[in-house]
Amino acid sequence: MSSAGAIHRLVVFGDACESGTLGMEAKRRMRAAMYEAFGEAYASVGVEPGTVHQEDRGDGILGALRPDVPPTLMVGRWVDTLYESLREHNQGRERPLRLRVGMNAGLVLDDGRGLVGRAVDLACRLCDSPVAKRIMATAQDADLLVVVSGWLYDNVVSEGGRYVEPGHYRPARVRTKETDETAWFHVPRRPAPPLLADDAADGDASGNASGKKGGALPGGGGPRRGDGPPPPTAAPVRTYHAGGDLQVFEGNTIHGGLTGIRKDSRGRDGDGA
């Protein structure tokens, strides 16, 4: 298929957590609440009904914004309004509506049947990634998880702005199908999402990792950009007593003439070897 006619658009894919456990009536209510929350979020950034391309995905919604919608509004006010809408809806409910949202930007083609493009594929895969699902399974009280592509984080989120919290995002590697990307994860109103150390280690741009293998990172966060490498661990110091010809013994280097090294008869660590 030719890419002629494709334009650069911001793509949003939202998916409801654990929707497969709901009965028919509960699904109907869930879908109504999801569309209402998305509609309120779009209205908050001046996107009127009918001006955003939306496709129903059963327990999810795929959307593409007009090219003139500032992406900073989408990662800022739009995310904040969506979170507040979900929080209000979920108060006092036994089965809250919890969403994972993937966001990306790139060339998108509307072929008359739907949206086509790698930007669309990646937004959907970030949302449905194993890392995203693990985060929401761990943070059962979280109403919303936002996952943005590396491009969107570097070019939009990292610049900050009103309602934008770049320091509260954490990177993790997403490997699924043909996708191998570093994405950035954010749970609104929290300093960091509960990434596992295994997830965050590959995603950290500086190559650092925190925490023990397989465990949650301290404070629910991952390594931060700009962190330096950990300080080297000092090797244990051992002291030897040498014969008269030995002048200096430093670290692993012997200076001077050596006639022999004897082990101290006291045998204490630090006084002998």
From TrEMBL:
Comp. bias (Gly residues): 212-223
Disordered as annotated region, ranges: 187-273
InterPro entries recorded: Nucleotide_cyclase
Compositionally biased residues, Basic and acidic residues: 261-273
Biased composition (Low complexity): 195-211
Domain of life, source organism: Bacteria
Protein name: Guanylate cyclase domain-containing protein
Native species: Streptomyces coeruleoprunus
